[in-house]
Amino acid sequence: MIHSMTGYAAVQRDIGPAILHLELKSVNSRYFDINFRMAEELRFLEMPLRELISARVSRGKIECRTNLGSSTFVPRELAPNEALLGQLAKLQETVRAFLPGAAPLSMAEALRWPGVLADQELPQETLQAEFLALATTALDEFLATREREGAKLAMMIAERVARMRALVAEAEPLLPVALAEYQDRLAAKLHEALASLDEERIRQELGLYATRTDVAEELSRLSAHLGEVDRVLAKGGAAGKRLDFLMQELNREANTLASKSVSGAISGIALELKLLIEQMREQIQNLE
To answer: Are 24 and 7 a contacting pair, CB within 8 Å?
Structure first.
């Protein structure tokens, strides 16, 4: 499938005393870029998340937001930091050895000491396992939105390709008539030139005729490039850069067709081809 670079997913996971939140969103970019906005207690999960995303996404500017909130359904369990309390006790003994009259720490003062009383923390191993499971779910949803958007863009491109094929087919039978009319006009000019024996003008008119009448090659290349666009769309995957290159080639042939045109009808077809190519190019900028 063709994927758009525009996607979004937001999921959360209840892990007992806390709730994990993860939001992924992306926009188009020439390169692959990930920006993380993570809560400090989840910062150690940045590298595993980067590896998980990089394995499944190849292009686009992605923003990841994560945070860890308290659960409203599970009562908070408070536990004292025994190691810190032990350090406070030893510190108190040292101070009172020098200052015997100093009052001992009260229980309230000890509990208010920064870091002594905190919510019960989840082990990092448990937190990482829960987070990666959540990230996998979020990434599945995120890629599904990019796939749906990509399918719509691919359909639009295919419609433009079909219209361009019809225009090329419309131009081909016009060529003999356009060339015959141009030859008649050229013959009249040559008769005028021969009447005055202006050999330089004859050479100029013949050179102009040779350069302006042969557009069959351009029509053939247009058909070949359109076939390649169909092939790339059918193959799927990361096709944005390849399709963008094909738009450049199609535009080059359409420009040449317009410059060599010897009739108003073919000029109109060339202009419509250029319009369709530009419409496709704008949408291809959003493809992975």
So the answer is: yes
Decide: residue 62, CB within 10 A, 0-12 exposed, 13-18 middle, 19+ buried.
Answer: buried
The predicted pLDDT at position 74 comes to 47
Enumerate the domain spans of the chain.
7-74+124-146, 78-119, 150-284
Q: Which residues pair with 27 in a beta bridge?
A: 61
- 51 and 79 Cβ atoms separated by less than 8 Å: no
In terms of pTM, does the model score above 0.85?
A: no
pLDDT digits (tens, 9 = 90+) for 154-165: 999 999 999 999
What would the CATH number be for the domain defined by 7-74+124-146?
Answer: 3.30.230.10
If we measure between CA atoms, which residue out of 280, 181, 187, 191 comes closest to residue 240? 280
154 Cβ partners below 8 Å, 6+ apart? 2, 233
> What's the order of all strands across the beta sheet hosting 7-14?
7-14, 18-27, 60-70, 32-38
- Residue whose pair of structure tokens reads 């040449």 in the numeric block: 256
Q: How far is CA 202 from the centre of its chain?
A: 56
Q: pLDDT for 45-72, tens place per residue?
A: 999 999 999 999 999 999 999 988 765 5
Residue 78's SS3 state is strand
